[in-house]
Amino acid sequence: MDELPADAIYDLTRPTEITVSPDGDRVAFAASEADPDEDETHQSVFVVPADGSRDPHRLTRASGAGTIEWSPDGSKLGVVMVRDDDLSMRVGRDDEEDTGDGESVDGSESDADDEDDGAGPANGGDEPKPQVWAYDLELGGDARQVTERDEGVRDFDWGHGSERIVVSARDPTDEEREYIAQRRDDGPIETERLQHKYDGKGWLDTVTTYLFVVNIETREERRLDDATAGGIGGEGTGMQPAWHPDDDRIAYTTYEGTDGDDTYVQDVFVADAATGGIERVTDGEYAASSPVWSPNGDRLAFVGRAPDNLYVPFDVFVADLETGNYEAVTEGLDRTIGWFGMPAWIGDDRLLATIGDEGWSRFVEIGASGGTERVFGRQPRDETVRQFDTAGETVAMVRSDPSEGMDVYSLDLEDLGARRDGPDPRRRLTELNSGLLADYDHPETTRLTFESDDGTEIEGLVSYPPDFEPDDPDPRPTLLWIHGGPMAYDEPGFRLQTSFWTGRGYLVYNVNYRGSTSYGREFCEALRGEWNTVEVEDLLAGTETLVERGWTDPDRLFVGGFSQGGVNTAYVLTRTDRFTAGIAEHGVYDMRSAFGTDDSHKWFEHDFGLPWDEPEAYEAASSITDVDRIDTPLLLTAGEEDWRCPPTQSEQLYRSLRKRGVESKLVVYPGEHHNVGDPDRAIHRLETLGEWVARFDPERESETDGDGDS
Length: 710
Description:
By secondary structure, the chain is of the alpha+beta class. It has a domain at 441-703: Rossmann fold. The strands form nine sheets. It has an eight-stranded mixed sheet, with helices on both faces.
């Protein structure tokens, strides 16, 4: 088959949100699609029967869709979306049926909570804002706009009775509105905030986010004056409101102290929608998130971890509001709760969640009083679960497979006990990528383990083209692609970028180095405050393993990564000249200067101390310190408005390499944050990566003109 082109991005459809109707009969999901004419990524919302008896029905295609939620009576579907009335219904390049898939529009990594378009008032933007829209699925017809807030809506939930919603939204004072108007006219940025930036939000102002109760028929709203957002973590969430199933209590997360810009603490509170009063549930011990009520309303589950240590697992906690007690019910599991699909109740005494379990996202059942059990053993280790939801007797999920794409599936709740050697009880509800999957080859993925220098066992994933035989290999060019985080993990799943490389004959090698989650606290915490140590040893040892097995051609060996993967790429290149060329994307290379220009100052303080107190720690974690040891050609990419890993970081490393005469190239994407979101730019990025590798690959360099930008 032909090599998968970079513009196959236009053929991708990626499920992003999923929710099951209260009776379990229907599944609603949102999916992203790239529009080649408008150079934008849009979100479509679909509804499909949970039994798979009909194809998905498209409700809308919007500029952006966030939270989607069924009303408690199942008659309506609420969606937070940015909607243009004249938006066409085009799908892909050929206006055909829904095709395509992927983990992000460009294969780069981005944080799940950084979905804002960055055009908010604090940045002088004047784009349409996200609002809550409601579809009446009994009467049919188009959605009805429920909110019309100047600053948009962050998040929402339905109230019992299905007649009201709670939303979180910014509500500026007159003085703040004047400042916002000045910013929209390119006025000066003024700040006295410690946390003055946040990736995806840009420059932060002082506008307060509140909870509002809104009547969906009259659109009348009431502000809960004491329920406000706070804390660094609050910048990346919408307070996550959760309405009690039977009364007027609303759970949410925030931080109430005066030092909100200097802490990751998030507490759980409960507000009364009738009186406006609030009650604290937790007492400042945790970075709490995702509160969810038990069906009978007696208990409240939430996710949390220590706020000063980002390397410890997220646990599930259950609070009894009558006694005021709460406890971690997954503490003995030593696995972090999955990034996709936060806990959901399956009865009054049990919860379902996904965990990261040795490079694999899988289901776990949790007792409300303690005790966990890994369930659905039928799921193979060569695929993964992304988003999920459950209601009634139905579980819906997004299944991701390296060679079969990402699709929505459902199964009966009772079938969570299915064993690996039995029939697969899942029902496939979508075929989002049939065209893309049929037109190009996609990789197989296998796991391998090896010992690092000190004997620690490390696991890696190798994705390879269909014509590669692991048991009788011929050495292949190999790209060591390093995951971000570092508190994350690689797992088998569909990635367009991986297919791009394997379609050109390359192996793609992902190593879950120490610092990765899903292997327990001790494994992850080994990297805390010790960057540029054990993770580099693990990456280099893994590389040698592939060479020794005869899988990798040592003369055609490349290394790259995005975010922390970019950070680690630079570390690796200060240690060895083993690699033919490198790709460092959206990384941090000078920790001292990053402390004052990015949005992660508190993380760095927890890891390394303050730069004026611990200069040696910052120097040791900065690859710029050892730039004189980098001789490998290096491509650097950055987002012009990336405040997680600012573009000045890439500029510093690029300038230093050029001064030393090292072949290097810098690509900065205007207006982009800690990802590359616009389809045209995502295509440019992937093409640029391919050209850079081909330029230095001794068997592909003739494909480029060779004069480059060095």
